[in-house]
Automatic annotation (TrEMBL), chain A:
Membrane topology type: Multi-pass membrane protein
InterPro entries: MetI-like (IPR000515), MetI-like_sf (IPR035906), Phosphate_PstC (IPR011864), Phosphate_Transport_Permease (IPR051124)
Protein name per UniProt: Phosphate transport system permease protein
Transmembrane spans: 12-33, 63-93, 105-128, 140-159, 197-222, 262-282
Function as written in the Swiss-Prot or TrEMBL entry: Part of the binding-protein-dependent transport system for phosphate; probably responsible for the translocation of the substrate across the membrane.
Keyword Cell membrane: yes
Subcellular location: Cell membrane
Family: Belongs to the binding-protein-dependent transport system permease family. CysTW subfamily.
Keywords: Cell membrane, Membrane, Phosphate transport, Transmembrane, Transmembrane helix, Transport
GO biological process, one term: phosphate ion transport
NCBIfam families: phosphate_pstC (TIGR02138)
Domain of life: Bacteria
Automatic annotation (TrEMBL), chain B:
Protein's GO biological process: phosphate ion transmembrane transport
Main subcellular location: membrane
Residue ranges constituting the ABC transmembrane type-1 domain according to the UniProt record: 62-269
Alphabetic keyword roster: Cell membrane, Membrane, Transmembrane, Transmembrane helix, Transport
Membrane topology category: Multi-pass membrane protein
CC annotations in GO: plasma membrane
One of the record's GO molecular function terms: phosphate transmembrane transporter activity
CDD domains: TM_PBP2 (cd06261)
Family under the similarity heading: Belongs to the binding-protein-dependent transport system permease family. CysTW subfamily.
Residue stretches spanning the membrane: 12-34, 58-86, 107-127, 133-156, 177-199, 251-271
Protein name: Phosphate transport system permease protein PstA
Subcellular location: Cell membrane
């Protein structure tokens, strides 16, 4: 009886493991197969500017530009803000408040992205349009700012963990040598925690690249690279917002659908590569 | 520049950053709760939505969201437990360990909209299920697998080896050891992970908006392959008519309901984690 149970049990754990592994592979295969049409028909012309399904033109450059610029703005704001706040929590805030503060930030990380989108529409787009006197507040900059708020908790919690894990003796020795707190932090603590902080930023980068709902509501959804290209006060389009807006309208099996899958597949490859690099080359963080 | 001045500038920068971060936190929480409680009432919770959501309540949206998350929980929990036990008790090969790690982390890194597209191609079109809440539940289950697996794996991994050796020396078979020593911890760790996963799943819009939900006129589903409406997609459709003040007001109300559901999952996960972090072997 127990030998029988033994093999049943083994069968259960083995099959659930292989099923999970198969799911991941199937996701890749399905996306690749359905984007194959676009890769073979459109080929390298996919890296052009014009996207017009009725003329069979599928250029994705403006979406890649949109994704990169939104992510750039988000990290430009969230990186210094997040790391400095992490230093505040770990080095200045008294220990007894630390847990409350971190739990509040983790709750912030749990707010669904659609709600960030709603807040963005209700407040941020109005602020941006009145501040810069624009006709519409749905711009690359607005989406970037909102995205920076969304990735901030990731950077804060992970960098704070990294700083907090450094043993106390480093701070004491540094203080004993007569260094100011500023010098202790920049010359001793940050170099030690550097790898983990880079890991946190890469994780945030992956999230920012794949974020859909908030960006889709706020970026304005126009396939265009603004002129000049650093004019972030113009509407744009990211890969994810394009997918969110158009995949429901495209017919299954058409070249249009396949082209949308192709940019989804590109995004998937980029984000997966980043995630794997983060997990294996920097210290493994078991938090998700 | 002398060191003292640098030090005080740096200190000011840190305080400024912290104030901005706290400001954002306070702003978000106040807006959500203030606006939300203004537009929420018992009636809002128990009546169905009318006029594309700008009037009426969110009763069927709540039902839909709960159905989707329940379905996700029921599918992903046993799968993750099996995976976690296999990974910690059976896999001895280092390369296989790394491979399973890669699989979990890749799954965790996949952007949520990609899950939606995957479900649209494979289930809705290829298997021809149509827009269905059951498919939405499957996709959400896949999405939260890594969270549940890792949480349950960590708590199994914290069981000292001597426990396993003692059980084996009493003549138990491998599966009996797993059943009596490993399983209870796996379930309790996995449950914490499940709560965290559900907190994420219930708020997701992108994976379910093409495959599981219809925007209006949906009541209780009659079968597995019928659409439901859910809170996040309801907020999406209301946010797209944000120029209408009634729609916006209902959007804040739905957001508050959603936030409270999310927080109830994540806070109970925090509490469980706090309790079990005191557990020592």
């Amino acid at each position: 009886m127990s030998a029988f149970q033994n093999s049943i049990g083994r069968g259960y754990v083995v099959s659930s493991t292989y099923l999970s592994i198969a799911i991941v592979l199937v996701i890749f295969i399905v996306l690749f197969i359905s984007s194959y049409d676009a890769f073979s028909t459109v080929g390298w012309k996919i890296f052009t500017l014009e996207w017009n399904p009725s003329k069979d033109k599928f250029g994705v450059l403006s979406m890649i530009y949109g994704t990169l610029s939104v992510t750039f703005i988000a990290l430009l704001i969230a990186m210094p803000l997040g790391v400095l706040t992490a230093i505040f929590i770990s080095e200045i805030l008294p220990e007894k408040f630390r847990l409350y503060f971190k739990s509040a930030i983790e709750l912030l990380a749990g707010i669904p992205s659609i709600i960030y989108g709603l807040i963005g529409i209700a407040f941020f787009s109005g602020w941006v349009s009145s501040l810069f006197e624009l006709a519409t507040g749905r711009t690359i900059l607005t989406a970037g700012i909102l995205l920076s708020i969304m990735v901030l908790p990731t950077i804060i919690t992970l960098s704070e963990d990294a700083l907090h894990n450094i043993p106390k003796k480093y701070r004491e020795v540094s203080k004993g040598l007569g260094l100011y707190p500023f010098e202790t932090i920049t010359k001793t603590l940050l170099p030690i925690a550097k790898n983990d902080i880079i890991g946190a930023i890469l994780l945030a980068l992956g999230r920012a690249l794949g974020e859909t709902m908030a960006v889709m509501l706020l970026i304005g959804s126009i396939d265009r690279i603004p002129d000049p290209f650093y004019n972030f006060l113009a509407p744009g389009q990211t890969i994810t917002s394009k997918l969110g807006r158009e995949i429901g309208e495209s017919a299954f099996g058409s070249l249009h659908f396949s082209a949308l899958n192709a940019i989804g597949f590109l995004l998937l490859l980029i984000v997966i590569t980043l995630t794997i690099i983060t997990q294996f080359y920097f210290k493994k963080e078991d938090r998700l | 520049m002398d060191r003292k001045l640098k030090n005080s500038i740096f200190k000011m920068l840190i305080w400024a950053a912290a104030c901005v971060a706290i400001g954002i936190l306070v702003f978000l929480i106040t807006v959500l709760f203030y606006k939300g409680f203004q537009s929420i009432s018992v009636d809002f919770l128990i009546s169905e939505s009318k006029n594309f959501g700008s009037e009426g309540g969110v009763f069927y949206q709540i039902i839909g969201s709960v159905l989707l998350t329940l379905c996700a929980a029921i599918i992903s929990f046993p799968l993750s437990l099996g995976f976690a036990i296999y990974k910690s008790e059976y896999v001895k090969n280092k390369y296989l360990q790394n491979f399973t790690d890669t699989i979990i982390y890749s799954l965790n890194g996949i952007p949520s909209i990609i899950f939606g597209i995957f479900g649209l191609i494979l289930f809705v079109n290829f298997f021809n299920t149509g827009v269905s809440w059951f498919v939405g539940g499957i996709i959400l289950a896949i999405m939260i697998l890594p969270t549940v697996i890792l949480s349950s794996y960590q708590s199994i991994n914290s069981i000292p080896n001597s426990y396993r050796e003692n059980a084996l020396s009493l003549g138990l078979t491998k599966w009996q050891v797993i059943k009596t020593v490993i399983f209870p911890r796996a379930i309790s760790g996995g449950f914490t992970g499940l709560l965290l996963g559900l907190a994420r799943a219930i708020g997701e819009t992108a994976p379910i908006m093409f495959i599981a939900t219809a925007f209006s006129g949906v009541t209780f589903p009659n079968g597995l392959f019928e659409p439901v409406s859910s809170l996040p997609t309801h907020i999406l459709s209301l946010a797209q008519q944000a120029t209408n003040p009634d729609a916006l007001e209902n959007a804040w109300g739905s957001s508050l309901v959603l936030i409270l559901l999310v927080f109830s999952f994540s806070i109970s996960a925090f509490v469980r984690r706090l309790q079990y972090s005191k557990l020592k072997y």
